[in-house]
Specification:
Blueprint (H helix, E strand, L loop, with lengths): L1 H25 L4 H5 L3 E4 L8 E2 H7 L6 E6 L3 H5 L5 H5 L5 E3 L2 H10 L1 E2 L2 E5 L15 H5 L8
Parallel strand pairs: 3-4, 3-6
Antiparallel strand pairs: 1-2, 1-4, 5-6
Helix pairs in contact: 1-6
């Protein structure tokens, strides 16, 4: 893992550019193979720790059909964004993408292993909110308002 992390740090841009080139030149024939090599930070791991697409799928909620991501300038901005609130409350993992090329890559590939990529800041998308309730809603006592 340490050797790959060093390799990835040096060559991540070229791997990501390779996905775009593969779509244009080879009709995305190698997409899944290249995607397996990509690593991103995510909302459920500490800063500086990266997760693969395979790891993301294995940590996803049961029944989750989407891969959630957020393109943002840095971790602090992303984690404090109002767009992230519903995902953090539901303990859903969100990939955090900081490089300019990330958004082009995600928009060019659409999905990974029959799961669609959905940006947490997109409008009119299915965020699968019926999969789970926010943690605080489960524990809250139901109180009626009286006048």
């Amino acid at each position: 893992p340490e050797k790959f992390a060093k390799f990835f740090k040096g060559y991540s841009y070229y791997l990501k550019a390779g996905i775009i080139e593969d779509k244009e030149g080879n009709y995305s024939r190698h997409k899944d193979d290249i995607l397996k090599l990509l690593r991103f930070e995510c909302s459920q791991k500490p800063k500086g720790e990266f997760i693969s697409m395979e790891e993301y799928l294995s940590s996803a909620k049961e029944g989750q059909k989407n891969i959630y991501y957020f393109t943002c300038p840095d971790r602090q901005t992303g984690m404090s964004s109002p767009y992230m609130e519903q995902f953090l409350k539901r303990e859903r993992n969100v990939l955090l993408m900081y490089e300019d090329v990330d958004e082009y890559v995600i928009n060019s590939i659409e999905g990974f292993k029959d799961r669609k990529f959905i940006s947490v800041d997109s409008a009119d998308k299915d965020f699968e909110l019926d999969l789970d309730e926010p943690e605080e809603d489960k524990n809250e006592d139901k109180k009626e308002l009286t006048a």
